[in-house]
Amino acid sequence: MGAGHGHGQHAGGRHRWRLAVAFGLVGSFFVVELVAGLVADSLALLSDAGHMAADVVALGAALAATRIATRPDTTGRRTFGSYRAEVFASGLTVLLMLGAAAYVGISAFRRVGAEVTVSSTPMLVVGGLGLLVNLVALVLLRGGASESINVKGAYLEVVADTVGSVGVIVAGLLVARTGDAWWDTLVAGAIALFVAVRAVVLGREVLAVLGQHAPTGMSPSDVEAALCGVPGVATVHDLHLWTLTSGMHVATAHLVATGDSDTVLLEAGRMLRDEFGVEHATLQVESDARHCSELSW
Question: Is 226:251 a contact under the CB 8 Å cutoff?
Fold first, then answer.
């Protein structure tokens, strides 16, 4: 028996145009920044270009996820739809971010004690342009970030890259003022560390979803207690909670009921939706738990 079924319209689909424009802007500027970083031999520019590459993938993945998630299943085998495309795309973003951070970190380490000449002019020009591009992308994505967690993820990626652009400008000013390329290496290392930390945090979220952990901020014991508080429910067992994709939580449970089964289903489903945001709950009502053969897991 099921209760609380239905996801509604995919919110990210309404904001595809925002993602598409931001993707075009950031993708185009990534090429400019990468070439400028190689020409100027600036690790700060290269590290920010690596971070921007992760932004390009994140925005592209967000675009693809909104398309795939709303695509009808013609095989009849995808019983949960294709919503997990977003999770796999996020995993790819994590790998790219870690790769970019490792490359810049190793390059910065190799520069320690070496004589390096860095041109500050390209750093300042490209860093300023990058900041402008990121600000435009932020304005575009902010309009959909409050409705779609997919768009919100892309928005937060661009926020972080804006910080990187500021770092490039600061490094360019310090190099121009002091003539010491060490500042470029230091800022590049800081950006690489920032990207790596964010990649680890995002990676943990991806693994938690793929591992079917209980949704963040949702305690299984609290959900069990709330279900037991539904009128007509005596006990609860075999409770499972997990996340299908960002913002889509799923629950299954067996309820031993002393009241009317239909009423118990309606009230339990309503409670899960209203109190925990679980819109897809599959609930089984039983009159006696002894007739339920639970699995060992």
Answer: no
Q: Distance (Å, rounded) from C-alpha 41 to C-alpha 43?
A: 6
Considering its fold, how many domains does the chain have in total?
2
Question: What is the C-alpha separation between 181 and 120, in angstroms, rounded?
Answer: 9
In a domain, 297, yes or no: no
Domain hosting 206: range is: 2-210
pTM of the model: 0.73
DSSP reduced 3-state for 39 = helix
Summarised one tens digit per residue, pLDDT across range 91-143 is 877 787 788 778 778 877 777 766 666 677 777 888 888 889 889 988 888 87
Are 188 and 47 contacting, i.e. CB atoms less than 8 angstroms apart?
A: yes
d(CA 186, CA 1): 59
Of 156, 185, 210, the residue at which a domain comes to its end is: 210
The verdict on 195 and 173 lying in the same domain is yes
